[in-house]
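job 3f2a | input accepted
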Amino acid sequence: MPRGKATGKATGKPARQLLLFSEALCQQKHPLAEDSPPLPCANMADDTQGATMDCILQEISTVSRKLEGMDNAMVALTAETRSMRLDIAGFQLQISGLDQRVATVETQVASWTDRDLELSHLHSTLTDLEDRSRRNNVLLLGFPEGVEGADIFSYLQDILPKLTDITFDPPLEFQRAHRLGPKRQDGNDRPAQL
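job 3f2a | predicted structure (194 res):
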């Protein structure tokens, strides 16, 4: 088709509509800037189709440059997004590794708690055994049942110096004093242990 001629189909309506659209474009300001001056082709004559085509080509060229700039920006944005995805994947791997380490530490701490309880029990058992082995136990036989009354400590502090003819200074101290075993059915006396 020769330059400057725009023809449509049989009626020529599409060509006329394109011509009117291109003239309207040329008479407007630049679409992306409010304060931009009118395009150079805005002063063209209405009857010159060649000038209209030049205006259209100029607009297409401007739009093409802008699209190129947008395309370059899109490429840069895509590259940045790709880089961020790689960073996020790396962070996810690190977090996964940290989760495993935390689970291991929690398991160890739980086992340490069990061991701490066991150690505490063993320590109290050992202390009790040491205390028992260090005691000087005295087994007294032949004391009638109930002769000590309600306070066996004061009874023993009073009776032992008399039985042994020894004066204790300071007075005897007892950690424990009690009868051994349950009360006997046969009437025999239970021994007293100090």
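job 3f2a | Residues 33 and 148 are 114 Å apart (CA to CA).
job 3f2a | closed
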